[in-house]
C-alpha cells in the first residue's frame, strides 16, 4: 500500500485542476447581446475587395463597403447605392453616375468622383502608383472599361470599349466595392488588413486565424445597423462548426453540411434556405466519342435521376436544374423550361437509335471544390444511373486543383464527361464563357466540351450588347430553349444556400446573391 | 559538450536544406498552381498567366528556389499569397499555438505515462497493474481525432463544461484562464495515445531495472520501498524512457495536425494543410523549415539529457 496515498493525492490534484478550469471559466454558451458571432468556413485572405475571389471573404466585405450600385433585397436586380442615379448612352458605351451627397468613409474622408476613379484606376491601370497593392484577380470583370473620369465632385463617367450589358451587375459584385483612397495610400500592401469603406460596419480588428471584428458605423447613409458589433470566426472543419452552433458558441452558421441539417430542427434554431445563381452540371464531350451525337447527350439527360440525387445525396439542399441558367436570375429565366424527366425507356430508345448501346465513357470526378457540393457521392450515383441505361462508365477522381487543370484544358482525348459547377452574378457569365464556340479551351474560354451552335453564339453576343433589360431577357430565354434541346451538358442541380441562426437572432435572411447582409439583423 | 552541440547544429543545416529541396520539388510536381487555385472557375490561360506574373511565379523553378533560399538566409521568408501577410509572422504565430498544445500534451503524457508505468511495474500482475494495462490498451487503440470529436459532443455540446474550439473566446476573454480552459480538451485528446506508449515502455523499463542487483542491494541495506522505486529504479529506468519521450515529441507534433483541425486550434499543422491545398509554396516551405529545425533541435536536447543522466553515453 506504499503507492496508494500518492496516487490518491495525484487524482485529487487532477480533479481539482479540472474543477477550477470548468467552474471558474466564463459562461461560453451565452454570447453577449448586440454582438453577433458568425461561424465562417475559412480565414479571409484579405479585406481588400478588389484582391479577393472567395465567397467566404465577400461575406465580411459586403458589410464593410458599399458599391455604386447593389442588388435589391431578395433579387439579383441592381438598385442605387453610392450612386443615386445613372444614365447610359444610346450605344451602351458611356455610363454616367451621380454620387450620393454627404457620404464619408470610416476614416472621415468624403466620397468623391476622384475617389471612385482612384478605385478603378488602381485595379485596371498597371502604371497607377498603387497598382502594386494587388494583385487583382477579378479585374477582368471590368476589362471593358477604357476610361474613368471625374466629371465634377459628384459625377463620374465610365467609357467602355464596346457595349457590355453585365457592367452594372458587375459593379454590384464585391470587386466593384469602393475603398478609401486615403487608406490605400496610408497602408499600401497592408490595406487588406486595415480596410476602410463606407459600409454599415467599420473595421475594428483582425486577429489572424481567430477573428475579424467589425462594429456599427453610426453615420451610414442608409441608417445605422441594429447590431453593435459582428465577430467573424474562421472554423474550417464542418463538424466542428456544427458543434459550435449546437454548443451556443456562434449565433449564425453558414454552409451547414446536408447531413447536419436535422440537428437544427426544433425551436432553438431557425434554418434559412435560398436558391442562388448556381448550376451543377456535367460537361459532355461533344467533339468526339458517343456524346458527339446529340441523341446520346439527351439520353444521358433522361437517364440520370436528378430528383433522387437532390433529395437523397444532397438531402434537399438543392433543386433540380432545368437548363443552363439558374432560376435565381428571375428576370432572365425561361419559366417554360421543364427539367428532363427521369425516363430510362426513352434513354435506351435514344441510345439504340444512335447505335451507342454499351458505350464506354470516362467520367472525371473531383474530390471537392468551390460549389461542387458532394461531388464523389453525386458522381457515383450518376455512374449507376448511366450504367442502368446501358452506358459503361469509368470514374477517374482528382483533387480540385488538379481537376481544374485537367478539365479547363478541354476534355478532348481524355474524357467523355466531367463534373462542374459555377456561381455567377449575371446570366451572361456562364454561357458566354462556357457555351460559345469562341470559348473553346484553345481560345481561352471554358467550353471544355466543345459545344458549338452558331445561333447560340449570335444570341449571346447580342444579349451582351443589349442595354434594354426586357429585350436582353428575351435573348437569354431563347438561348436556354436551344441549349436545353442540344444538351451539351447534363443539367443536374441548383444549390440552395443554407444557414442556421439561433432564435435570439432577428431579421436575418439569405440573399440570392449568396452575400451575407447583416445591416438589418438584431440580437436583443 | 559545447563542441558536440556545435557539431550537431552544423550537421543539421544540410538536413534542413535537403528538406527544403524535397518540399520544393514535391510542391512543383503536384498538379495545379497557385493562380488556378486563386481563380478557380475563372482560370483562363490568359488570367493565369497575368496572375503568375503578378505573383512572380513566371520564373524558372531553380530560379524561384534560389531566390527563396537567398532571401531566407537574410531572414526574409517572403509573403504568403493566400493570406496576404509575411510568411514568418504567420508561421511563428501558428507555431507558438502548436507548441502550447503539443508541449502541454507532452508534459501530460510524460508525467502520467511514467507514473502509470512505475505503479504498474511496482505492482506487477496486481490489480493496479491490470487496470492500468487495460486502460493503456484502450488509450493506444483510440484514434485521437475520434476521441476528440466524442469529447466535444460530451463535454462541450451536452455538458457545456468546455468550449468546442478555438484558443480564446471570440469576444472578451483572452487571458491565461481563457487559454487553459480552451486548451484542456485538445491537450488531453492529444496526450492519450502518447501516454499509453510512455506507460507501456516505462513499465517494461522499470521491470528490467527492478531485477538488477543494485536494487536487491538497496533493499537488503534497508532502503524504504518508496525510495527504491522512485529514487533508485526510476532514475536508472529514465535512461531508456527519455528516448521514448523524444520519439513521442515527434508523434505529438504530427498528431497535433488532426487535433488542431478537430478543435480548430490554429496551429502549424492546420496551416500546412490549408497551405498545401492552396498551393501556397512559400508558406509550406516556411512552415516545414521551422518544424524540421525544431525537430532536429529537440532530438539534440534529448541526446544531451541522456548523456547527462547516463555517464556511459559519451557526448
TrEMBL record, chain A:
CDD domains associated with the record: PBP2_DppA_like
Pfam families registered for this protein in UniProt: SBP_bac_5
Domain Solute-binding protein family stretches: 77-436
N-terminal signal peptide: 1-29
Entry keyword set: Signal, Transport
Highest taxon of the lineage: Bacteria
Cell location: Periplasm
Family, per entry: Belongs to the bacterial solute-binding protein 5 family.
Protein name in UniProt: ABC transporter substrate-binding protein
UniProtKB/TrEMBL annotation, chain B:
Presence of keyword Protein biosynthesis: no
Official protein name in the record: ABC transporter permease
SUPFAM superfamilies: MetI-like
Membrane-crossing residue ranges in chain numbering: 12-30, 95-119, 131-159, 179-201, 236-261, 281-302
Family: Belongs to the binding-protein-dependent transport system permease family.
Key words, A-Z: Cell membrane, Membrane, Transmembrane, Transmembrane helix, Transport
Annotated source species: Paralimibaculum aggregatum
Pfam families assigned: BPD_transp_1, BPD_transp_1_N
Membrane topology: Multi-pass membrane protein
Transport found in the keyword field: yes
Compartments where found: Cell membrane
PANTHER family documented for this protein: DIPEPTIDE TRANSPORT SYSTEM PERMEASE PROTEIN DPPB-RELATED (PTHR43163)
Domain ABC transmembrane type-1 positions: 95-301
Recorded superkingdom: Bacteria
Amino acid at each position: 500500500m506504499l503507492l496508494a496515498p500518492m496516487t490518491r493525492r495525484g487524482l485529487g490534484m487532477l480533479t481539482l485542476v479540472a474543477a477550477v478550469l470548468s467552474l471558474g471559466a466564463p459562461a461560453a454558451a451565452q454570447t453577449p447581446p448586440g454582438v453577433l458571432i458568425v461561424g465562417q468556413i475559412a480565414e479571409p485572405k484579405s479585406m481588400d475587395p478588389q484582391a479577393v475571389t472567395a465567397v467566404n471573404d465577400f461575406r465580411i466585405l459586403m458589410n464593410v463597403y458599399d458599391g455604386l450600385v447593389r442588388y435589391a433585397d431578395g433579387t439579383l436586380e441592381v438598385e442605387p447605392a453610392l450612386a443615386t442615379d445613372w444614365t447610359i448612352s444610346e450605344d451602351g458605351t458611356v455610363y454616367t453616375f451621380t454620387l450620393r451627397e454627404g457620404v464619408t468613409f470610416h476614416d472621415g474622408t468624403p466620397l468623391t468622383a476622384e475617389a471612385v476613379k482612384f478605385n478603378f484606376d488602381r485595379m485596371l491601370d498597371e502604371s497607377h502608383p498603387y497598382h502594386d497593392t494587388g494583385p487583382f484577380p477579378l479585374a477582368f470583370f471590368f476589362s471593358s472599361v477604357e476610361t474613368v473620369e471625374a466629371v465634377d465632385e459628384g459625377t463620374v463617367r465610365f467609357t467602355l470599349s464596346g457595349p457590355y450589358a453585365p457592367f452594372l451587375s458587375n459593379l454590384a459584385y464585391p470587386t466593384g466595392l469602393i475603398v478609401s483612397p486615403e487608406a490605400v495610400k496610408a497602408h499600401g500592401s497592408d490595406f487588406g488588413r486595415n480596410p476602410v469603406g463606407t459600409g454599415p460596419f467599420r473595421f475594428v480588428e483582425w486577429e489572424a486565424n481567430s477573428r475579424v471584428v467589425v462594429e456599427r458605423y453610426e453615420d451610414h447613409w442608409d441608417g445605422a445597423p441594429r447590431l453593435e458589433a459582428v465577430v467573424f470566426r474562421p472554423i474550417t472543419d464542418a463538424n466542428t462548426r456544427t458543434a459550435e452552433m449546437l454548443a451556443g458558441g456562434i449565433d449564425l452558421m453558414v454552409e451547414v453540411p446536408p447531413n447536419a441539417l436535422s440537428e437544427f430542427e426544433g425551436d432553438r434554431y431557425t434554418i434559412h434556405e435560398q436558391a442562388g445563381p448556381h448550376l451543377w452540371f456535367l460537361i459532355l464531350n461533344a467533339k468526339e466519342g458517343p456524346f458527339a451525337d446529340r441523341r446520346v447527350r439527351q439520353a444521358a439527360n433522361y437517364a440520370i435521376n436528378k430528383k433522387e440525387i437532390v433529395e437523397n445525396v444532397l438531402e434537399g439542399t438543392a433543386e433540380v436544374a432545368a437548363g443552363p441558367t439558374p432560376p435565381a436570375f428571375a428576370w432572365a429565366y425561361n419559366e417554360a423550361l421543364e427539367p428532363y424527366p427521369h425516363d430510362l425507356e426513352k434513354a435506351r430508345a435514344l441510345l439504340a437509335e444512335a447505335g451507342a448501346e454499351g458505350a464506354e465513357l470516362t467520367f472525371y470526378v473531383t474530390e471537392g471544390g468551390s460549389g461542387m457540393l458532394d461531388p464523389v457521392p453525386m458522381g457515383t450515383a450518376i455512374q449507376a444511373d448511366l450504367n442502368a441505361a446501358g452506358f459503361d462508365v469509368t470514374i477517374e477522381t482528382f483533387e480540385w486543383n488538379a481537376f481544374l487543370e485537367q478539365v479547363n484544358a478541354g476534355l478532348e482525348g481524355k474524357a467523355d464527361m466531367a463534373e462542374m459547377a459555377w456561381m455567377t452574378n449575371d446570366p451572361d457569365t456562364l454561357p458566354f464563357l462556357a457555351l460559345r464556340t469562341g470559348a473553346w479551351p484553345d481560345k481561352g474560354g471554358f467550353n471544355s466540351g466543345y459545344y458549338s451552335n452558331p445561333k447560340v453564339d449570335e444570341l449571346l453576343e447580342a444579349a451582351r450588347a443589349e442595354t434594354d433589360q426586357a429585350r436582353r431577357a428575351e435573348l437569354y430565354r431563347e438561348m436556354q430553349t436551344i441549349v436545353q434541346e442540344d444538351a451539351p451538358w447534363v443539367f443536374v442541380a441548383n444549390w440552395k444556400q443554407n444557414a442556421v441562426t439561433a432564435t435570439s437572432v432577428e431579421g436575418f435572411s439569405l440573399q440570392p446573391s449568396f452575400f451575407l447582409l447583416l445591416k438589418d439583423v438584431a440580437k436583443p | 559538450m559545447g563542441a558536440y552541440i556545435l557539431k550537431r547544429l552544423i550537421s543539421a543545416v544540410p538536413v534542413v536544406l535537403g528538406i527544403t529541396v524535397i518540399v520544393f520539388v514535391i510542391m512543383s510536381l503536384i498538379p495545379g498552381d497557385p493562380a488556378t487555385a486563386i481563380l478557380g472557375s475563372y482560370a483562363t490561360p490568359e488570367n493565369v498567366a497575368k496572375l503568375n506574373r503578378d505573383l512572380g511565379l513566371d520564373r524558372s523553378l531553380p530560379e524561384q528556389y534560389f531566390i527563396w533560399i537567398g532571401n531566407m538566409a537574410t531572414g526574409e521568408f517572403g509573403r504568403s499569397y493566400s493570406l496576404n501577410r509575411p510568411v514568418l509572422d504567420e508561421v511563428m504565430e501558428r507555431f507558438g499555438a502548436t507548441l502550447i498544445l503539443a508541449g502541454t500534451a507532452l508534459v501530460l503524457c510524460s508525467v502520467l505515462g511514467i507514473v502509470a508505468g512505475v505503479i504498474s511495474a511496482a505492482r506487477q500482475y496486481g490489480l493496479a497493474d491490470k487496470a492500468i494495462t487495460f486502460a493503456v490498451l484502450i488509450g493506444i487503440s483510440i484514434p485521437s481525432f475520434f476521441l476528440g470529436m466524442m469529447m466535444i459532443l460530451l463535454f462541450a455540446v451536452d455538458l457545456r463544461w468546455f468550449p468546442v474550439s478555438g484558443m480564446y473566446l471570440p469576444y472578451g476573454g483572452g487571458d491565461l484562464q481563457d487559454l487553459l480552459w480552451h486548451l484542456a480538451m485538445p491537450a488531453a485528446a492529444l496526450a492519450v495515445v502518447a501516454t499509453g506508449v510512455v506507460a507501456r515502455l516505462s513499465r517494461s523499463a522499470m521491470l528490467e531495472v527492478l531485477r538488477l542487483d543494485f536494487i536487491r542491494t538497496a533493499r537488503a541495506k534497508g532502503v524504504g520501498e518508496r525510495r527504491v522505486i522512485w529514487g533508485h529504479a526510476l532514475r536508472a529506468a529514465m535512461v531508456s524512457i527519455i528516448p521514448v519521450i523524444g520519439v513521442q515529441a515527434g508523434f505529438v507534433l504530427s498528431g497535433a495536425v488532426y487535433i488542431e483541425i478537430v478543435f480548430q486550434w490554429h496551429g502549424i499543422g492546420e496551416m500546412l494543410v490549408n497551405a498545401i491545398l492552396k498551393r501556397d509554396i512559400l508558406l509550406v516551405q516556411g512552415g516545414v523549415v521551422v518544424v524540421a529545425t525544431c525537430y532536429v533541435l529537440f532530438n539534440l536536447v534529448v541526446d544531451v539529457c541522456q548523456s547527462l543522466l547516463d555517464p556511459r553515453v559519451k557526448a
